[in-house]
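Form 7-S
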Amino acid sequence: MDAQTLVSLGLILATFALYIGISIFNRAKQTSDFYVASRGIPPFWNGMAIGGDWMSAASFIGMAGTVLALGYDGLAYIMGWTGGYLLLTFLLAPQLRKYGRFTVPEFIGDRFDSNPARLIAAIATIIISFTYIIGQLSGSGVVIGRLFSIPAMYGTMIGVVIIAIYASLGGMKGVTWTQVAQYIILIVAYIIPIVFMSLQVSGNPLPWLTYGNVVDEIGAIDRELGLSEYFAPFAESDKSQFIALLFTLMVGTSALPHVIVRFYTVTTMKAARWSGAWALLFIGFLYLSAPAYAAFSRFILMTQVAGQPMDELPGWTDSWINTGLLEIADQDGNGVLDWTEIAVGNDMVVMATPEIANLGMFVIGLVAAGAMAAALSTAGGLLITISSSFAHDIYYRLMNPKATDKRRLNAGRIAIVLSTVVAGLVALDPPGVITQIVAWAFALAGGTFFPVLFLGVWWKRMNAQGAVTGMLVGLASTLCYIFLAMNDITLFGIQDTGAGVIGVPINFLACVIVSLVTAPPAQHLQDDVIDLRYPEQMTYKDGEVWMNDGTGK
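Output:
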């Protein structure tokens, strides 16, 4: 084992010990700890936990690589994900918090007074979260696989064990404080390399101010090589795919159950809004850095690796070739590696950049620990969501309403272990790259939940029949389009990653039409919807608004 492996392994093991220690210290003792952290998380720390929850392997490992590969077209991911948080913060999160439930399926079941709607929502939540977690486990496999120079599938197995331990111990309370620690680790690990790269390339330590000049230089090299210019709009995809992907990520973000549940962990509607504001700030640190990461990495590869003799390539190339994420071939037989002869996998860019830029073993190890933090933080939130959908919405609310707290906690922990193992088996041979798998989860979340949540909060005429029909046709149409697009059957050139733009309108139409042709919901359910528009200090009832402090109307 070389010095680099020892340093990286030491940092990763230290962070693993930290996560498990936090989970043990915050071990869930009752169901409110396990599902919503007893609703006692301050907004600042909840915003940071949301940042950790959100900064998945797709964001940490895949985002910069996607922008590097797609240039301008890759910005759809950044704009879509950021825009989705604005939708969630302003249109849904405070209202869902005021309703005061544990999960998204519980909100849907109680809002529409319908157990069929609750069951469909719980099953859809499990499908969406399961899809998402496959991408996270694949990410942990990339990190550990590179660390030991082994196939990524073995790294995935190790990640599965770690995630199952700390998520089942601490529940939402433990996962929240673990995500806070993971956010701090991952954002430090993400920013330090680009600060050093900016110093190397431009002499300025502020990459956000300098990478524009690097983009200009990359464009000049592209023109010289006769390639599509970097950051030229729609060079790698067409406008319809760009808009479809941006829309899918935006509505998917605002409808992802594991993201929404984080807003249930605070005390008030105001705290929910502040949580969203803090989360946007913390997430922005990484998203504003990803384009700089991509530009510096591409520039160094084009100027310092391409053009080198095949027998004088840097040592790091062999390690990444072993993982299957880097392919090089002297296609013209001239003994020199040309830029067009390098195939860089999206999922290796961030991990490999410290090695490419020769930043030293500590920085390389820090990035490995940060990538693991990103994969584990989101996976923890997803496992809690899967667990609560099964143990709370299906087992407790539908099968055994008299279950004790102890039985419900045990059911939740068993659900976490089983879902981790099954997802880990699927992740051994992932069906796509990390960002692609994650985009499917967003499409399914948007296609299934966004219209039902939006109309459920803002349209009192929406009823149970509309919600059930909307979720079923939204989920089915989105799934069908993903499979069709993967077999090259598309509409207007929209790929599988933009499937939400198909499912969401169909879901909206189904909700509205079916609700209008069936009986309206009971009056108390309609009053509940109007009540959501008032602050928690007020209650709407029987056509009048009352102050909750007893001072009257």
